[in-house]
Structures are given as C-alpha cells and as structure tokens.
C-alpha cells in the first residue's frame, strides 16, 4: 500500500485526539467521518488482523446460558479488520418510528432520519432506502409496505481499507486487544493493550483525549465491566436480538393492489409491516412479514376471483429489553487471563409472536389485501445475529448507560457507538441505523471537541 501506510505495530505511549476501539462498520465510519471533518489525530484499534486468525477469534468465546447456540458469539463478534461487515448479509431498513412515538428513545426520530441519506451512500443503497423507506397501501392504515433494501453487501475493510490505511491522520493499530480503560475521576486516562497473538508480551499503553467504544453488543459492555466503569449504570443489561421465524405460513396477496407500491426496480427483500401507529395503539412491538414475487395465481379473495401472489412468509420481529438478558463475567478465563463473557439470553417470544401474528392476520383480512394460510402457525425461532441494547441510550442514568449523544453518563471523555446503544431494537436489521447514528456521533464529536468550525454543513 505504499510508503504512506499508517499501520502501527507498536502503539506504546502514542497519543491521539480520538481513540476508537473496534474496526467494524461503526469504528470505520467514525474514523472516516472525523478524518474528513477535523484535523484530529485518530487511532483505530482492532483486536484482530487484516484477515481472520483463529487465535484471536478465540478471544470472542463466551459462556452461554439460554437460547443461543455455542457457535453464535464467535460468529457474530468477528475479530478482524472490518468486523461484522465481513460476514454481513446486507439487509437494510430504516428503524421503525414506533419506539420513538412510544418514548423509548431519548432523541427525536428526525435526529436519526437526517443521517440516513449519508449512511445510504456509505452502504451503496438506492435513494429509495431513505426517500421511500415504506409506502402506504390503499385501503388500509394498519399495514405498510416496507422492504429490506440490500447493500451489495459493502465489506468495510475492502471498500474503505485503502482510505483508512493510507490516511496520514489515522493510525490503524492491528493485533492489539484493549483489556482495560484506566480511569480516574470522570475521565479515561489511558488504554491498556495486550498483543493478541503474543500474549506473553508485557501490556502497552496509549492515551487519548476522547475514547469511543465500537466493539459490538458484547464487546462494549464487557470493556466497561472489565474497567470498572459505570458500576452504578445498567451495563450489560437488556441484551436484545431479532427473532427470525422462517417459512411459518403461506399467504395470498391481492396483486392488483400490491403492484403499485412494490419497488420492483430495487434490489430488495419485499415485506409488509404493521404500521407504527397501529403498533402503538395495540401495545405491540414491531413485526415484519416478507414475501416474494415469484408465483401469481388466480384465487378467490373477498368473494371475487383475483390475480394473487401466493407466497411463503417469514417473520422478523422485535423483542423488548429484559433485565435477565445480560452480559457479564463467567467463571472461565480467556488466553489473556480475563473472565470470558457470560451471556444469559432467552427470547421469551412465543406468546408475543402468536398475538402479533394474529393482529397482522386480522389486519390483512380486514383490509381485503389478502389472507394467511393459518391463524395458528407453528413458530420455530431462529436468531438474526443482531446484538443490541447492552449500553442503552437514555436520559436517566438509572435506566441507561449513555446519553443522547452516546457519552457514558459517568465519564466525560468516553463514548459508545453501535447497536449496543439502542434502547429499542425494532424489527429492522440494525446496520443501516448503526452507520446513521455513528455519522451523527462524528458530527457531535467534531463540534464538541473542535468547535463550530468543524461542524458538518
């Protein structure tokens, strides 16, 4: 990559204006945003290497209690440059407004919405991903068309690696695991690092004016816990996932009414969703039912024979944060001598799934848009690989870990980026929202740390 390469092999005693821990979508997005807006010196730290290394990946092992399989956490906590984007499927949808209407988020929906266009550009999404994220269907206010737009998918290490590695003000520090944030008073003073491959080497330290955690739904709370930061805050509490229920039923949809709203030009997974206000009115969480356009049949619908889509339906849903779903210490140690993560998680979803499906099926029948094959499907739960809510955003330190800008309540110069700050997970895949929120954080840090001269236009 030439003589300008800013790969750092020995980070000892280096100082940065901003240190970012984790090089997945959130970490890379933030580093690029700050580098483009400010003259800051930025350190981007990654536990792994440019490629996957089994020894480093083993540091992501966890002790599990609950509904997630043994391979789950190593798979969904990739320790390599690019992080989870290296295995991401590319599904993108804007977060539902339901949680904002219900008051779960401490910021207005418009604060998130304004960053979706820039996030779409980073993820190579079509303009409709933010211009037309959902569409009303004539004859019903209870159901909307809300597709999942597909990123190619963008691999952040491949698309943005050259810019990161060659940038004169970004140091990419690979193969070093941050094991502790050393702090006093209300500030992080230094970062303690261990060599991820040569674990017998002595720890090294670097310092930063501001530190940002961007190491995932498990990594973010674990580093706070291992550092003894935020002991009075609900760190690690309220882990959320997206229940996925594949091919649970078939349904017929009136093609004459659907064809005007379906975005057939886009690379997308088509889906229907309960409208936000309908969810709020019925005290139900977000729920998405996907369908395909492959089979048209002539079928009686509402007493008349019409051209209908006959399609299997898979569901993606939201669960509420539960205090028993949490990340904490196990009684086992990893190769660095640290306690493994202990993950306690149960979906607690079956009753909610039946109620939400019934509401969806009734709304479908009431609207005349179509009909399901059954009102009592057999639900088999799968996970989506979306780890959210363990450092939740909020205004009350008793109920949250970070404020509306992502700053840890107890620590002036420590921020968190990624889906761990989500106070509500929605039914939409989180990467699009992660990038949007991280762009917003970059703008905030540029303004706060550098003054209005660095604010985004």
CATH class descriptor? Alpha Beta
Tally of distinct domains: 1
What is the CA-atom radius of gyration, in angstroms? Answer: 23 Å
* Portion of residues within helices: 10-25%
Largest sheet: 8 strands, mixed
User: Helical stretch count?
Assistant: 13
The CATH superfamily is known as FAD/NAD(P)-binding domain
- What CATH calls the topology is FAD/NAD(P)-binding domain
The chain-level structural class is alpha/beta
Bulk shape: elongated
Strand content: 25-35%
Total count of strands? 22
Average pLDDT, rounded to a whole number, is: 93
Amino- and carboxy-terminal Cα gap: 32 Å
CATH 2nd-level architecture: 3-Layer(bba) Sandwich
Uncertain spans: none
Task: Report on this structure.
This protein has 457 residues and is α/β, with parallel strands linked by helices. It has a single domain (7-454), classed as FAD/NAD(P)-binding domain (3-Layer(bba) Sandwich), CATH 3.50.50.60. It is 25% helix and 28% strand. It is built from 13 helices and 22 strands. The chain has helices spanning 25-37, 54-57, 72-76, 98-101, 109-113, 116-123, 128-131, 156-166, 216-227, 255-258, 276-281, 350-367, 431-450; strands spanning 7-8, 15-21, 42-45, 62-66, 91-92, 135-137, 140-145, 148-150, 170-173, 176-184, 187-195, 204-213, 244-254, 268-269, 271-274, 287-290, 296-301, 304-317, 326-333, 339-345, 370-372, 414-416. The strands form 4 sheets. Strands 1, 2, 3, 9, 10, 11, 12 and 22 form an 8-stranded mixed beta sheet that branches. Helix 1 links the parallel strand 2 and strand 3. Helix 1 (25-37) runs parallel beside helix 8 (156-166), helix 1 packs parallel to helix 13 and helix 6 (116-123) packs across helix 13. The longest helix is centred in the last third of the chain and has 20 residues, at 431-450. It is elongated, with a radius of gyration of 23 Å. The two termini are 32 Å apart. The mean pLDDT is 93.
